[in-house]
Amino acid sequence: MTAQDRYQFLLDTFKRLNRIDHAITMLSWDQMVMMPSGGVTSRSETLAELTVMRHELLSADSVGDAIAVCEDGLEGFPAGERRSVQEMRNAYQDVNCVPSDLVKAQVMAGSQCEHSWRTQREANDWPGFLVNFKPVVELAREEAQVRQSASQTPTPYDALLDLHCRGDSSELIDQVFGELKAALPSLIDAVIEQQGKSFDSMLAENSNDAKYPVSEQTQLSKALMASLGFDFNAGRLDVSAHPFSTGVAGDQRITTRYDESTFLDALLATAHETGHASYEAGLPEDWLGLPVGDSRNMCIHESQSLLFEKMVTLSPAFLKHLHRLIQQHLSAGKAVSYQALEQNARRVVKSYIRVEADELTYPIHVALRYDIERDLINNQMEAEHIPEAWDAAMQVGLGLSTKDNYRHGCLQDIHWTDGTFGYFPSYTMGAVNSAQLFQSLTKAHPDWASRFETGDITFVRNWLSENIWQHGSHLSSQELMQQATGEGTNAASLLAHLKARYINA
Amino acid sequence: MTAQDRYQFLLDTFKRLNRIDHAITMLSWDQMVMMPSGGVTSRSETLAELTVMRHELLSADSVGDAIAVCEDGLEGFPAGERRSVQEMRNAYQDVNCVPSDLVKAQVMAGSQCEHSWRTQREANDWPGFLVNFKPVVELAREEAQVRQSASQTPTPYDALLDLHCRGDSSELIDQVFGELKAALPSLIDAVIEQQGKSFDSMLAENSNDAKYPVSEQTQLSKALMASLGFDFNAGRLDVSAHPFSTGVAGDQRITTRYDESTFLDALLATAHETGHASYEAGLPEDWLGLPVGDSRNMCIHESQSLLFEKMVTLSPAFLKHLHRLIQQHLSAGKAVSYQALEQNARRVVKSYIRVEADELTYPIHVALRYDIERDLINNQMEAEHIPEAWDAAMQVGLGLSTKDNYRHGCLQDIHWTDGTFGYFPSYTMGAVNSAQLFQSLTKAHPDWASRFETGDITFVRNWLSENIWQHGSHLSSQELMQQATGEGTNAASLLAHLKARYINA
Q1: Which of A399, A479, A486, B451 has most Cβ atoms within 10 angstroms of its Cβ?
Q2: Would B92 be classed as within a structural domain?
Q3: Facing residue for B36 by CB, picked from A36, A50, A235
Q4: Which residues does A308 contact at the CB level (< 8 Å), separation at least 6?
Q5: Of B19, B233, B235, which has the smallest distance from its Cβ to A49's Cβ?
């Protein structure tokens, strides 16, 4: 068997895997968007079966053997195929290096913890939560150690980080988040003081008489998506409890949610998910269905959604276009002035809840979670001490106390309950990357603001396609950032952006 | 290995198969109802992959061996498991008795023929169609012979009939359809003569001013479904180009289509698909996912949809309830009198097109297709002679000539183009069964008409559940009919029903 034969076998296997993933993706979408409650049991069984089939396919010895043969014969491969084999190795190792007994124990502990959390959060029951959460942490530490031995990452936490942020080390994140933690608190205070004097609440103005029917908001969301370049022949917009983006080649599915008393949240969720979907739709066709053709990592993925949401849609220039869309599609939109729209879009509030936070305070929420989860997984902190660490960080960052207030503190997020560690930093690494990419692309297009005013972002899509989307996973995340912006991920652009938008505006 | 061990292995295999079928079913629904056009390629690849996985699973030697071991040990099994093994044998044999080269040749010839048919029908191009259709017939004959040797059916056509109408032989169908062909032409003429004198066209009355918006019709369709007992926690109503019913345990998905200038067609499609969905939802839970737990055959399936559509919804008593729903949900429904509704619901017209035919003329369309396909597959007729056979049967049955008019004659249906023979008779066998079942259940509930007037059909559902749905495939179709009505399928009840509804009304 030559390396070329084995590579062909791997191509066939990964394409078959990709089709199983297609089924899992679309059945999961259906479950969240369309399925009546009566379908839960048979759907869960079907998804579990497909997941087992996926695992059987990817964990076969023949796959590991073929990857090893290809690695030995790498010098005979063209550059693209060489990267392709490396990404196959990563995919194979991610699935196979953890013993199945550990995976099972994690699924059991995680579902117990997540299930109980749903009521414990409401009941502010930290001690109750801790009972289920400690085993989840223990098992995650075990997983991290196993993965670390397989991948030789500098710390156990970095081995979990690789699952979501491969290529961005905790050393890099420490540095980037350190700069943000140092600069943001005083900036936040200054912005809030300045805004207090002149805030014009669009919602307060309209809260009694203005109503924004779902049917009108749907048309408005679709008009925004069209402006942002979404192709409705290759995707859909629907409604779900929590907005998300998913899909397969040629068929990107995003969701938003509507509140008839306001419209901005739905629009921003739509813009955000359109960014995720645009990245997926722009991945290189030649490598479709292979690991090397996939999106790079969550720090890059989130940079695309935040670039569409925060950098484009919330820019004062694009808001002029959005204001016209609002007037056009909402009967009650006539009463919304551009000034009110713009001020609401830039509203900064210190709040307890991450998912409600604005772009200025959001990094504080993420950095404190990152610090805690890194120390937890690296055995430098025990779960018992989370509440005090949380409170201390909220005091320093936002001047808010979460003492004894677990529901608005460390019990607010679902992420850790099933043992997902290493995901949180991608939110703010994405924000940092988005500011850095936006700075480079606007430097290349000095007329960007006047184009935004007319709703034209074609040049943004073209630049992102060339610099990010078309590369799939052929480059590491830091290679992508370096090639696109001239430097690796660093906090300077985000801080400059926030000062420009919130202080000098 | 004991027979019990092997039976357990079969249970696991068929349940896994059922989960793959769940994925295929729901992805196919999505393709017809939700998917944007850009998803076609990746969806086709995924469905093909799942179909291959399904085939690999069911065609494994270990499955055939296990079935044989269980058959040898049948006397040690309880009655239900014995039937279960028999239905597993049928499912296994249906898939495995045809050589894969023949299946491939059929797929190629069928898709070529179907693809070309879409334009040839419009172009009235019978000679062009015949070029592609002759190989389709040849391959179907080959398939029928292979299946006949495996299953020992009396004729080759019966072996294809088994795929859709297992248990109902061509001898039985000849007899039933023979009675209909003898009785219907004069009945149709008598009804049309009588109706001509007093027809009050609801549509003509309202065609200029009445508009029925889709949103109102959707609410009306859902209200009708609720009256018919559809559980919206275990299913959905959507829109597609052609109404259909599909689904999985706990999640029945039906579709209809709306025309804003009229509302009756959408309602009747909704009622029809609700009947199919009710049967599926009522199958025995204890045998879920196994062949013996499936619906019996298409002659029984179609009897359920037609019972809901023609026997219940179109009965004068239930129409009183439906009339109230129309007044309630359609703004323009106020102008629709009960008399107009009732006359339109009973309108009989001689037409060329099967799918537009009413219940009185429909059997003529089906019987002529049945006679042709039976003779074709049994080598008693060649494809060249279809147009003259069609014209002759339309002349005798409806007094209409289709000479040289292929688009409104033998080119109108999609069924034969991909080699599906043995399906057509189920439409009219379903109509016959529905009348017979309805006669028995109304005999058991003499107050049925007064209950229908209030929209109460619970007793219908209970009777069908007990006599049909709960049996799954534990009884043959003729055993089901015998137990439920005291006799096997015969034309008497349908003819009595048609006379009562159309002549004596």
Answers
A1: B451
A2: yes
A3: A235
A4: A228, A271, A272, A274, A275, A278
A5: B19
